Amino acid sequence: MLDLAFRPDRASSEPLHRQLEGYLRGLIRAGRLAPGEKLPATRELAASLGLGRNTVAQAYESLCDAGLLAAHVGQGTFVAARGPRAAAPSGSVGGFAWDGLLASRTRWLQWPPGAAVPKEIRFDFRPGGVDADSAPQLELRRAYSRALARHGRALAAHRDPLGWPPLREAVARALVARGIEASPDQVLITSGAQQALDLIGRCLIDPGDAVALEQPGYFSAALAFASSGAHLLGIPVDGRGLRTDVLARLLRTRRIKLVYTTPAAQCPTGVVLDDARREELLALAAENQTPIVEDDYDSELRVGAAPMPALKTRDPDGRVLYAGTFSKATLPGMRVGYLVAPRPLLQRMVLARLASDFGTNAVAQAAIVEMLASGDLERHVRRVRKLYAARLRALDAALREALPGDARWQIPAAGSALWLRLPREADPDRVWRGLLDAGVAAVRGDVFHVDGAGRDHLHLGVANLDEVGLAEGAALLGRVVKRAARKRRAA
Amino acid sequence: MLDLAFRPDRASSEPLHRQLEGYLRGLIRAGRLAPGEKLPATRELAASLGLGRNTVAQAYESLCDAGLLAAHVGQGTFVAARGPRAAAPSGSVGGFAWDGLLASRTRWLQWPPGAAVPKEIRFDFRPGGVDADSAPQLELRRAYSRALARHGRALAAHRDPLGWPPLREAVARALVARGIEASPDQVLITSGAQQALDLIGRCLIDPGDAVALEQPGYFSAALAFASSGAHLLGIPVDGRGLRTDVLARLLRTRRIKLVYTTPAAQCPTGVVLDDARREELLALAAENQTPIVEDDYDSELRVGAAPMPALKTRDPDGRVLYAGTFSKATLPGMRVGYLVAPRPLLQRMVLARLASDFGTNAVAQAAIVEMLASGDLERHVRRVRKLYAARLRALDAALREALPGDARWQIPAAGSALWLRLPREADPDRVWRGLLDAGVAAVRGDVFHVDGAGRDHLHLGVANLDEVGLAEGAALLGRVVKRAARKRRAA
């Protein structure tokens, strides 16, 4: 049954049926309730949420009237196959009702409110970026210049949709050092790891197919699979990583097309998937013909000890699709990543790739080969790894000073962001509004959940702030949190 | 009704029902008969092809046995919703049956045989490339170096999924010169024009939606829309371009989601869509809420007179989605293009873009801004425009020498390739085999058709051959054609 994170606010002046209606509308618009999905019977849902049956019925009816749900006599209530055809006024231009022309599978894609940004940013804790002052500007200039001087003619003739052959070879060599054996023809160069996820979705997901993802988990992976029509199933994460026991239980009753995971440093919690769970996950994949997508996006930015070898190192038969990226090690805007996959799948992906964009910018691929060959890339990664680790420790110290009560966080195994649970006494919505008002940019936890949960968490990145900025930003965050806690106690 | 280009070869030793079966299998595999599509009744098809009804029934039965068609009693015969689940041996790796895991919408994507390439290429007439010796190597080095020196920090922080703002502004300015009024926030930078087509498909096409394309027409556009599950409808082309009368007739009886066209120099015929048809096309779009995709891919490479203004210049209300590219003016591997579209659609595309790859390589975008600002790009385009025009004239002269009989071609309005109809006395399949054996690489006409027609045409590009190569290649082509003609007469 649908596990709803809806919590009625009985103190609110908004009637309960409207609260539930708004909550469900959000899930549908975000694609988290997929078209065609059946909703629980009003009686069941009312019981599980502690609401009156009439409250649930009223919410369902309003959503049916809006065209978002459809009731079929004797069968139940379902998410409507398409949104309402009438164009919203904003969607019409010169007589064309664009909203009504949108395809179903992208109609519901939407950024959740937890991705909102203050009008004026004073402290930019947004994760996912790199420190702009440390950008390897000179190294990139040298690499681009060399690449064009050496390969200008070959780059002009380049047609291989798998990618620039010297980069595929360099990736295969670099992976050997990490324990992964792959030949260059098992490597597909992609426009960032994101495109690897998108191509996997295009080639493996039929609308309605279930994809299991970590909860909390990487929202852009959810976006990629949702845009292929996947039904997203959240698998909880604890201190040992993805709960493979929950996955195993699910697999007993339903087909899951693929499992997406970030084992080196789980996004966003930063925990490492432990050894026993890795074995269990690989066994589940083999038993159920369910490929694993291993997104190794930040593993080179380890904070402490050397990372555990990739899942892919224990995968002689190709059930792990391994995605990596050079964007974090250069500039996010480089959009150069790679996918290691078995050949039958890669052959199919080449066609999907030709359909989508023919290939990744060739000059950037050749420049990265130069940066790998000169050692510039490794030196740069070593430099920023130290930088981010120091900043994470500084943020950790500042949060200890700034935050009251039972706030919880830990330094991640790798990367450049912290996952913070707010103190329980602080009202999460007040904290969020306070942060937006104060000019503190971060990402709220609901962005990392498929069911709207996680509003009491923040993901705080350290790439855009130096240690002074981190300390000041953390202090401001602390003040906002304390204010929200006081108000809650007062209320 | 399905318009089949099947021509039974009564001289062949292969039984007619096998010939028909093979032809239909090809259409299904190529996605040209979409899953769920209804086939004509055996009686109808037999009558229209001049075959016995039993012949058609035998072909249908074999395809049902193979799982490619499904017969529903009282309803007719349909293309099966999915291919057979059994994995081909080639698709299995280490116990994973990858063929069985593939998604329906990419399962059928396939390059047609007319895209085959000789083992050893002696004369490379393949279209779509650029002259490697003329690649603007120095200009690109200068542009990359300047872009990184000036904008290294901003490039590291760049996050706008619409694209690098200075490039969006530069595109908007460049389009004003072509008569198109667009503000920078109506411009989406894409990874080549191909990605513009793919994003249009993602945002507008539901599986089964009809997309009308020129026939012959650009195969990669067909691939992009097919990969979103579009049902492709071919609209014939004559000396005045797309047959808008045929489109109008179709629109009377069925909904068409969008129309794809290359009005400046139709791909592959090179004809210009004339004035009256432009007006008619725009009127049909408005009447039917059917957006037009105008792919203006080669218009800067005009051969003779200045090109007619884009369709988009007559489009005050945004019914034309205008796609252009910088790849042809720099390197195909640059993968930088753009789409001009109304804002409601662009907002949706931004989400589809985040799902697919976050954005186009930022350094390449900034480098193109530098090449535009310095005038290097315009100078380079002027240079290669002259080069390709001269080569097209040289190929034209060489073909006049080399080809017998009633072969037909004309110099295109723009671009770097010729569309050639082989002489009627030459057997197209013999010509094709002869070319592959002789090391002549070109693209056969069936690649440009959704129904397998066009095998008697070749698309010949001039970017990879100098005038000597073109003359020698054309002479060899002439010998192959004459041999095929002699054999046909002898047979």
Fold and architecture overview:
Two copies of one chain form a homodimer. With 491 residues, chain A is an alpha/beta fold. The first copy, chain A, has three domains: 1-87, Winged helix-like DNA-binding domain superfamily/Winged helix DNA-binding domain (Arc Repressor Mutant, subunit A), CATH 1.10.10.10; 113-129 and 379-490, Aspartate Aminotransferase, domain 1; 137-374, Aspartate Aminotransferase, domain 2 (3-Layer(aba) Sandwich), CATH 3.40.640.10. In chain A, 43% of the residues lie in helices and 13% in strands. Chain A is built from 16 helices and 17 strands. Chain A has an eight-stranded mixed sheet with strand order 6-13-12-11-10-7-8-9. Chain A has a three-stranded antiparallel sheet with strand order 14-17-16, with no helix packed on it. In chain A, a hairpin with a 2-residue loop joins strand 8 and strand 9 (241-242). Mean pLDDT of chain A is 89; it is low at 83-89. Chains A and B meet through strand 3, strand 4, helix 4, helix 5 and helix 6 of A and strand 3, strand 4, helix 4, helix 5 and helix 6 of B.
